[in-house]
Predict the structure.
Amino acid sequence: MEAKGKKKKHRILRVILKVLGAILSVITVAVVILAIRNHILNKSDRKLYTDAYGEYYTTEFGDRINYTFYDSNSDRVAVILPGYGAASTHYEFDTLAKRINADYKLIIVDPIGVGLSDVTDTERTVENYCTELHGLMEHLGYDKYTIIGHSIAGLYSLYYANEYSDEVEAFIGIDASVPHQVDSDEWMAKPENQYKVYKLLRTLFVKTGIYRVTTELGMNALMDEIPTLTEEDRDKVCAMYCTVPMNDSQMQEMKLLGESIEKCWDMRFPESVPVLYVLSNDNCERMTQWEQLHKDIVTHPKSKVVKIDGTHYLHHTNLDGLLEEINNWEYR
């Protein structure tokens, strides 16, 4: 009886292993198919969105930066900069840009590695980022302007405002990054840990094509969040959101983020530069020091730090609240 019992257990174990093996084989085949599909579509996607918008400026390093210029009857000028990992500044900020265009001539910038700008070997340091942006502004002939920056653009804008304080008239930060956010006890607050996560995501999700599938499935929601995008834009937007994020330039930018933060560590905005920080309530609740960290680095008497409902992407999840704060800012 014992022998029969053991044989039965072995048979059950073999069946289980066969089932698990079959499941693993199906998953492996599916991933291979998705990876091949992703590789093929990456090439066709790039052809789809080539020169989809904007103009180009060639930096002193020989790299091309794409920018879109929206003219206005206003004499004021504003530059819009994206957060880390953006697929396209032009598309991501389309609704915001159109809502504030009456108040500003707008320059919507795809930094290196974003949108239609080059993916390059030029190091993604804070110095190079700011040198490239300043070169663009000189090329366009503007020496007075407001910078509007989301997320990591806040870090670059802090450095930029200290380098070119005579040119920056104001900074508007959309849940913008600050150097001392890395003081948080959260594991993901550390740049080196973020880089590890992005490397893993790139290998497991981007290269395999899984990221593409999730992006395609989420396109309806994205189009709803940016309501000024048209059905004609849809295919190009989807193509860019599938192919641009976590490219080589963006990965190098994340790898060097810790060094960039160190270079901004003791900086505050100059007294000549008024700052409006509009922060996500979600982030303020998650990081109790988030609001104070922003208050600590502003010096102009008309600077303001406010919290509104919404996620980190306030220009998508609470655009009306964001615009209300911008329009009501005393400095304006």
